[in-house]
Design a protein that fits this description.
Helix content: 25-40%
Radius of gyration: 21 Å
Distance between the termini: 61 Å
CATH architecture of the largest domain: 3-Layer(aba) Sandwich
CATH class of the largest domain: Alpha Beta
Largest sheet: 8 strands, mixed
Strand order of the largest sheet: 5-4-8-1-10-13-2-14
CATH superfamily of the largest domain: Alkaline Phosphatase, subunit A
Number of domains: 2
Shape: globular
């Protein structure tokens, strides 16, 4: 046994904050994560460093912004000479460091000494079932339009105990059983759920009444006014809700929140196993998702936006030394996760980390000081404004979203590609008020200027050959709505 704390890092992919009962969603079934929040601290305004998988995960692991490490979408890789993974700090200090499940950070070097588990199995791929007959089964939602065709929602063909998520729990518990008990551990269990395809095993896929899910359904062509050209020309074009019927959207939402309920169930199994093994008393637990997603709200599905549905991520800490039952609404960045865990473990945060530790707010009771919070992406993943960085800054009541590289007068001065939302008067972000608040736009733009000036911007390193085979088809099929 060791006096130094163990670290358990729970992670999901594409999980909205309103999938948790502790966040106020009455339709959510999340007893295990709700209990974790009740025993610790929940951040109600945590933002992803990037609203897409690889870049968000690379930022979480390095504690640095995507534009600092050259990773801004799923076609970028983290160069081997500059990963600077914060997990290495734990390993150098004697922690046993392992991760099971989804890794997906695109670097030739490992962030964890042991990396195992599965993301997807043989039954369900990212866009389809292995058995084509299941693609047209009752209760399956197919997305057949736009650039990419995929299975969005349905039932997993295997029982819950035979899913990849449960395999990862079993692998993690097996590793725990064989570790050196004289040294602390850092264990991450990272689920692909609830990422598309949203296929939950029975009975989770029908566990939640779709009528109870109170989300706006914004159908392009009816009452939805696009907030920017990016909104209409890319987000709606790529995955617009208009290509699904209202009944399909209701079923997709039912499966999504059923899959988050299943993820909670899986984490419950893991926590029970660790408790039975006597491994929880000296363990700090953190839960985060890489980003959220859209479910027909704002007129489209999937992520990549800076609306709250996509840009916010759940963030919870609990364990020895952490105050109980607190909720903090000061905006923070989820990439503060590892700097926070390092400080809680009594380790120094390496000087290259760009996101501050939140440990004082967890142990001392004072909320973090208000400061600008940033997120960023390059939509070149699907050949839309390739190489042009789109940035979000949240400060107080205001959220500005604009292109940064290159900049044009149109992008900033009330043109068609920038968005400003007042979250105090319009928490649903339905009205782009950019033209009416030039002083706010000026101040928030200056905040981005200062952020960029404080660090070195690094050119992206594309993953060789990523999507080359379909690039021509993607460009040819692009159409506006």
């Amino acid at each position: 046994m060791t006096d130094r704390p163990n670290i358990l890092w729970l992670m999901t992919d594409e999980q909205r904050t309103d999938s948790l009962g502790c966040a106020g969603a009455p339709w959510a079934i999340s007893p295990n994560l709700d209990a974790l929040a009740a025993s610790g601290v929940r951040f109600d305004a945590a933002y992803t460093p990037s609203p897409v998988c690889i870049s968000a995960r690379a930022c979480l692991l390095t504690g640095r912004a995507g534009s600092s490490i050259g990773v801004l979408n799923n076609h970028h890789r983290l160069a081997a000479e500059r990963p600077g993974f914060l997990t290495w700090t734990f390993a150098r200090a004697g922690w046993q460091v392992a991760s099971f499940g989804k890794h997906h950070y695109a670097c030739p070097r490992k962030a964890f000494d042991v990396e195992g588990g599965r993301t997807l199995g043989d039954d369900v791929a990212y866009v389809r079932y292995a058995d084509p007959a299941l693609d047209t089964a009752d209760g399956v939602v197919r997305y057949d339009g736009g650039i990419t065709k995929w299975i969005f929602a349905g039932r997993h063909p295997r029982p819950a105990d035979q899913t990849e998520e449960m395999h990862n729990v079993n692998a993690a518990l097996h590793w725990i059983g064989g570790r050196d008990t004289g040294r602390p551990f850092l264990l991450r269990v990272s689920l692909n759920a609830p990422h598309t395809p949203v296929v939950a095993p029975e009975p989770f896929d029908t566990m939640i009444d779709p009528d109870a899910i109170d989300l706006p359904l914004d159908m392009p062509g009816e009452d939805l006014v696009p907030a920017s050209r990016c909104h209409s020309d890319y987000l709606i074009d790529y995955a617009g809700a208009h290509r699904l019927t209202r009944q399909q959207i209701r079923r997709a939402r039912q499966c999504y929140y059923g899959r988050t309920a299943f993820a909670d169930h899986v984490f419950g199994r893991l926590l029970d196993g660790l408790r039975e093994a006597g491994e929880l008393d000296n363990t700090i637990i953190a839960f985060v998702s890489d980003h959220g997603c859209h479910l027909g709200d704002r007129g489209f599905f999937q992520k990549q936006s800076f609306w709250e549905a996509s840009a916010r991520a759940p963030l919870i800490f609990a364990g020895p030394g952490i105050r109980r039952g607190a909720a903090i609404d000061t905006p923070v960045n989820a990439a503060s996760l590892l700097p926070t865990l390092l400080e809680l473990a009594g380790l120094d945060v390496p000087p290259g980390a760009e996101y501050p530790s939140l440990a004082p707010a967890l142990t001392g009771g004072a909320a973090p000081a208000a400061a600008p919070v940033f997120s960023e992406i390059d939509y070149g993943l699907h050949h839309y404004r390739d190489g042009q960085r789109r940035v979000m800054v949240r400060l107080g009541r205001w959220k500005l979203v604009t292109y940064r590289d290159p900049r044009t007068h149109q992008d900033y001065a009330g043109g068609a590609d920038a968005e400003l939302f007042d979250l105090q008067t319009d928490p649903a972000e339905t009205l782009n008020v950019l033209a009416g608040h030039p002083d706010v736009v000026k101040d928030l733009t200056a905040a981005i200027d200062a952020w960029d000036a404080s660090r070195t911007i690094t050119a992206a390193t594309p993953i060789p050959g990523a999507w080359d085979a379909i690039a021509a088809d993607v460009k040819a099929e692009r159409r506006q709505v």
